[in-house]
Amino acid sequence: MEESCELLEKCGFFNNFKGNSEVIKAGWVRMFCQSKEKSERCKRKAIRRETGQPPADNMAPTGDFVKMIDRTVVQ
């Protein structure tokens, strides 16, 4: 089994949306979080490295911002 991203437990996006059906349908967790290798493509991780600060919780791993209403993704 692959090791997940080392920032997963600290990730505001993951913690806020991990049970959200829209996030699950988009496959963001599968595409970016479930292995360290895949997580290197995560825009959230890149911003954290560049700035030393976590990005906004509503920034997806793709770098896109999602609208939130009560922790629900609105498209």
Protein model, in words:
With 75 residues, this protein is mainly alpha-helical. It has one domain. It is 41% helix and 8% strand. A two-stranded antiparallel sheet has the order 1-2. The chain starts with 11 loop residues before the first helix and ends with a strand.
Write the layout of secondary structure elements.
Elements: H1 12-17, H2 21-26, H3 28-33, H4 36-39, H5 43-51, E1 67-69, E2 72-74
Antiparallel strand pairs: 1-2
Mean pLDDT: 84
Can you tell me the residue ranges where pLDDT is under 50 for at least 5 consecutive residues? none
Count of spatially separate domains? 1
Backbone shape:
globular
Structural category: mainly alpha
CA-CA gap between termini: 33 Å
List SSEs in N-to-C order.
Answer: HHHHHEE
Helix content, binned percent: 40-55%
Number of strands: 2
Largest sheet: 2 strands, antiparallel
Task: Tell me the strand percentage band.
Answer: 5-15%
Short key terms for the protein model shown above:
single chain, 75 residues, mainly alpha, two-stranded antiparallel ribbon, globular
What's a quick, concise take on this entry?
The protein is mostly helical. It has helices at 12-17, 21-26, 28-33, 36-39, 43-51; strands at 67-69, 72-74. It contains five helices and two strands.
